[in-house]
Write a structure and sequence with these properties.
single chain, 306 residues, alpha/beta, Elongation Factor Tu (Ef-tu), domain 3, 6-stranded antiparallel beta barrel, binds flavin mononucleotide, binds adenosine-5'-triphosphate, FMN, multifunctional enzyme, Riboflavin_kinase_bac, ATP binding, Riboflavin_kinase
Length: 306
């Protein structure tokens, strides 16, 4: 999938263009529905399906005091998820205060002028955008008839009677309700992070762990979790401890996700790995001795392996 950083770069596209517009934090089932409209329409007329998204998350610029500290998927993770849905290109529009003051119509005209053969824009039917929230589906349809593109408005996708939203998913993850998060995401809840060097004590414990520093992701509650690790595209069973390791560290220790990957002994430092959260096993605990901790970890590992 091609990634552009400027709407002007869309000029180089030489086929009919079908766009989905939005932030798409987490690329949940509601977002997937909107994106599917663009992907299917592009397939039908031999065109290209693209997503135009905004970075950073607009709420961080418009109302930083209300902005979630954590987002669901960093831009790299979002790009990977979109590629899996069959999106041909992603345009990441930098979201600044200046950009937020642009009239909705001006932004749409910009897209229409730069996308050459813009055929179609897909959004959710309640999507609002542009200066003073001046853009909505009704207006978008009107502009589409003037500028010669079609508008597809997806009805809200609901789970358990409520509209799926990234705010709801964040809350479910914070509550440790991984199955609800999974249902709304339409995939396993995943933390993507880079492996950093730890104190290497875990190696002495007999359970080498990769310290995964999350790329700006909402994390579930501390504790021991059954995981699946994805490393260079290969899938492994794994177990993880999320927390501050009270047995061996003081309370000021950094919150970390330590992952012990089963049947793996390669070097993971500096690698980006994906940890799929499958099941909560137990809360993190302060043990009286490292030996007690070691014994408990053996039991945790055995319960996940079996
Ligand atoms: C499956 C598993 C469970 C763990 N559970 C706890 C725990 O309950 N309490 C705790 O203090 N540390 C726990 N740890 C963290 C160990 O203390 C940690 O792996 C060790 O401190 C290694 O740190 P290092 O990566 O800096 O070498 C657990 C680790 C693993 C892999
Ligand atoms: N549950 C849903 N069902 C259908 N479409 C949705 C749903 N949630 C969001 N969309 C649409 O997906 C696109 C991207 O949404 P965007 O992330 O910009 O905003 P949002 O509606 O605030 O999403 P969220 O509340 O999940 O953060 C928009 O066109 C939006 O209307």
């Amino acid at each position: 999938m091609k990634v552009f950083h400027h709407i002007g770069e869309l000029r180089q596209l030489e086929k009919p263009v079908h766009l989905a517009l939005g932030v798409f934090d987490g690329v949940h089932v509601g977002h997937q529905e909107v994106i599917r409209h663009a992907v299917e329409a592009a397939k039908k007329d031999g065109g290209l399906a693209g997503v135009v998204t905004f970075e950073p998350h607009p709420i961080r610029v418009l109302a930083p005091e209300r902005a979630p500290r954590r987002i669901l998927a960093s831009i790299q993770h979002k790009a990977d998820l979109l590629a899996e849905l069959g999106v041909d290109f992603l345009c990441v529009q930098e979201f600044t205060l200046d950009f937020s003051r642009r009239e909705a119509r001006e932004f749409i005209e910009d897209l229409a002028q730069n996308s050459g053969q813009l055929r179609h824009i897909a959004v959710g039917e309640d999507w609002i955008f542009g200066k003073e929230r001046g853009g909505n589906v009704q207006r978008l349809k009107q502009w589409g008839s003037e500028l010669d593109f079609e508008v597809d408005a997806a009805p809200p996708v609901m789970v358990q009677g409520e509209r799926v939203s990234s705010t709801r998913i964040r809350q479910a993850i914070r509550d440790g309700n991984i199955s609800a998060a999974k249902e709304m995401l339409g995939r396993d809840y995943t933390v993507v992070g880079t492996v950093e060097k730890g104190k290497q004590l875990a190696r002495q414990l007999g359970f080498p762990t990769a310290n995964v520093v999350a790329h700006n992701e909402q994390l579930p509650p501390d504790g021991v979790w059954e995981l699946e690790a994805v490393i260079d595209g290969a899938h492994f069973k794994a177990i993880g401890n999320l927390g501050r390791r009270p047995t061996v560290e003081n309370e000021n220790a950094r919150r970390l996700l330590e992952v012990h990957v089963f049947d793996f002994n390669g070097d993971l430092y500096d690698k980006v790995i994906e940890a799929k959260f499958l099941k909560f096993i137990r809360p993190e605990k302060k043990f009286d001795s490292v030996d007690d901790l070691k014994m408990q970890i053996s039991k945790d590992v055995a319960s996940v392996r079996s």
